[in-house]
């Protein structure tokens, strides 16, 4: 029997007054993957992740995280790590003091893992967090999340403000720790190149709705680029069409070309942003 998904949502909806941030989202995320959650600003990514972490509650629909309601109790909270967009750390505390605080707050804290990651990241234990670079703060926040030994780590655009080198190092650290712990990570980002580098499962969110989701290998195998919508075989879905770029979903297309993950995601984002160019089925 397969283990239950790490996240499972049915008709998940969140409204803020008259504004709908998420609308009837159905989503199932398997365990043991690095999941890329992509979409433009205002797509609902942060709202979804806050629901997952139990920071806010749904307006309607259901959501389970690791088989339970989000933030069901203290034990459940310990199974989830969270790195927010601004990788928050305490400016007045040293790196070592952050680790001591993490050990005090988390019963499953892995002292050896925390120390090793700090060393690998080149962080000075005596340095105050307020004097660290953006990349160093991100590495410290990731270390704190990893040393909890969570089953799920949620990252809300943690690398958006980092320079390319710091972003690369952060993403490498994320992949390494997910593999080491056998955890699942959900990485929210509007940087499609980052997602293509490290994620093996993709969720595209736009206008508060899931546009497409699934394992990256499956999505790449079922999407193709053609020159003309008329070249799509019977039963294929034209996801997006514009001069020189037509993306179809369905059977292999004779003369078609593979679609890079970034282009695949852009096709669904374009369709959501411009309904007049919406998909048709051949």
UniProtKB/TrEMBL annotation:
Q: What would you give as a GO molecular function for this chain, any one?
A: ATP binding
Which Pfam families does the UniProt record give? ABC_tran
SUPFAM superfamilies associated with the record: P-loop containing nucleoside triphosphate hydrolases
Q: Which Gene3D superfamilies match?
A: P-loop containing nucleotide triphosphate hydrolases
Q: Which UniProt keywords apply?
A: ATP-binding, Nucleotide-binding, Transport
Protein family (similarity comment): Belongs to the ABC transporter superfamily.
The name this protein carries in UniProt is ABC-2 type transport system ATP-binding protein
């Amino acid at each position: 029997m397969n283990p239950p998904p790490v996240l499972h949502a049915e008709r998940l909806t969140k409204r803020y007054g008259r504004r709908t941030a998420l609308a009837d989202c159905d989503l199932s995320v398997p365990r043991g993957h690095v999941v890329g959650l992509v979409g433009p600003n205002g797509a609902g990514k942060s709202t979804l992740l806050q629901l997952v972490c139990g920071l806010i509650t749904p307006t309607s629909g259901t959501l389970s995280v690791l088989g339970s309601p989000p933030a069901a109790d203290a034990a459940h909270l310990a199974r989830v790590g969270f790195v927010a967009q601004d990788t928050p750390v305490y400016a007045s505390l040293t790196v070592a003091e952050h680790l001591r605080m993490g050990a005090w707050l988390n019963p499953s804290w892995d002292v050896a893992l925390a120390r090793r990651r700090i060393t690998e990241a080149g962080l000075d234990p005596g340095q105050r967090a307020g004097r660290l670079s953006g990349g160093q703060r991100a590495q410290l926040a990731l270390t704190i999340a990893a040393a909890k030994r969570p089953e799920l780590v949620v990252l809300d655009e943690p690398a958006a403000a980092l320079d390319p080198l710091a972003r690369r190092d952060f993403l490498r650290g994320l992949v390494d720790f997910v593999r080491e712990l056998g955890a699942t990570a959900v990485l929210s980002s509007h940087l499609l190149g980052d997602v293509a580098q490290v994620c093996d499962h993709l969720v595209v969110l736009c206008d508060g709705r899931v546009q497409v989701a699934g394992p990256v290998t499956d999505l790449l195998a079922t999407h193709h680029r053609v020159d003309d919508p008329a070249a799509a075989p019977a039963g294929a879905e034209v996801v997006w069409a514009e001069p020189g770029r037509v993306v179809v979903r369905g059977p292999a297309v004779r003369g078609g070309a593979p679609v890079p993950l970034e282009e695949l995601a852009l096709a669904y984002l374009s369709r959501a942003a411009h309904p007049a160019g919406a998909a048709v089925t051949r």
